[in-house]
Amino acid sequence: xxxxxxxxxTIIPGILIFAGAGFMTIAxxxxxxxxxxxxxxxxxxxxxxxxxxxxxAIAARRSERSFKDKSLTLQHISQLxxxxxxxxxxxxxxxxxxxxxxxxxxxxxxxxxxDGLDPGVYKYIPRDHxxxxxxxxxxxxxxxxxxxxxxxxxxxxxxxxxxxVYERTTGKYGQRGVKYVHMEVGYAGQNLFLQAEALGLxxxxxxxxxxxxxxxxxxxxxxxxxxxxxxxxxxx
Length: 236
Ligand SMILES: Cc1cc2nc3c(=O)[nH]c(=O)nc-3n(C[C@H](O)[C@H](O)[C@H](O)COP(=O)(O)O)c2cc1C
Known about the structure:
The chain is an alpha+beta fold. 36% of the residues lie in helices and 19% in strands. It contains 9 helices and 9 strands.
């Protein structure tokens, strides 16, 4: 993967961003451009105080595979996405640690039954705490098929998918960067898991899926690699 050239800098002004140790890559830039042409939803502000302690959330955490047919709210979505990749410092650092602060992870939301959100696929933009719709329509059944027909994916009102662009990290760390990206999805996923518990919701880490099929369902670019699928909802 290569970095932005000076020429591109002049062709596409205004959307070049310093990302930690380096410029954004061409791939990032492309997804930024695509994102800007779609519908954008401002998420409600997240809160920093809840009613469940970290210790209680750790003790209560259990994989949940049985969900009520009950909608989530945009406030739930705001809180869940923030806990995994939200901005937590004025320098743009995020809720989960990232090697070199290079942030290889992107979060996608497959919304099926969320108050105030049309069914569709959305990308989380941490910088603005926004969702950008990338596809319309309820994609839960297609995603379930891509996840080896695990029924809990279809039953959940929403599913959060962690995807990674390895080049953001391997550009600096070489092959070792792949290890770092896999560590990072664990840190971010556990944040989301504990946040779900603290909100009275349930989730499960789904790692058994067909990468290419998930890529197709979400219309991901070739360099975007789905790593974890987390259906979220109220426990039945
Ligand atoms: C990397 C990874 C992949 C997993 N993949 C799946 C999966 O595809 N489907 C599923 O139902 N559970 C999956 N799980 C959840 C485990 O089955 C679960 O964590 C384990 O049974 C322990 O239960 P607990 O999470 O309730 O403590 C996965 C867990 C991890 C860490």
